[in-house]
Design a protein that fits this description.
Elements: E1 4-8, E2 11-16, H1 19-46, H2 55-62, H3 67-74, H4 79-86, H5 90-98, H6 105-114, H7 119-123
Antiparallel strand pairs: 1-2
Length: 125
């Protein structure tokens, strides 16, 4: 392998390698980053800081279904259970889920907490 080393003040400053070797190094660096990202995500899952979300939930959200309803159903809660946890009425929750009403920030924060989500997760639509 031909590598050219360029020195500055008697110390190696640059290494010039064939392009093929450079591309291999780039690929290896990307693979290493992928491994680190995987390890980080796996550790966050094990610590309970992250969760795996089924594709059905992701597709429902991408299809524009109401996030509160999608997450409520995924969490296995009835409207009554979520309404009680959030301290709101069932009709109010129903109106939020159908888009007939917009909730106040305070109510949406409480709903998000009851669903174990960030406010952003139920506002995204």
């Amino acid at each position: 392998m031909s590598i050219q080393v360029i020195e500055r003040n008697g110390k190696p400053e640059w290494a010039v390698v064939p392009y093929e070797i450079y591309m291999q190094l780039v690929e290896q660096a990307e693979t290493l980053q992928d491994i680190r990202d995987y390890d980080s995500a796996k550790a966050a899952l094990e610590r309970g800081e992250e969760e795996l979300i089924p594709s059905e939930v992701v597709y429902a959200l991408l299809d524009g279904l109401n996030p509160i309803k999608v997450w409520r159903e995924y969490r296995g809660l009835t409207q009554q259970q979520l309404a009680e946890a959030a301290g709101i009425s069932i009709p109010y929750l129903s109106q939020l889920e159908t888009g007939k009403r917009k909730g106040s920030t305070e109510v949406l924060i409480v709903i998000a907490k009851a669903l174990k989500l960030s406010l952003d997760a139920i506002l995204a639509s």
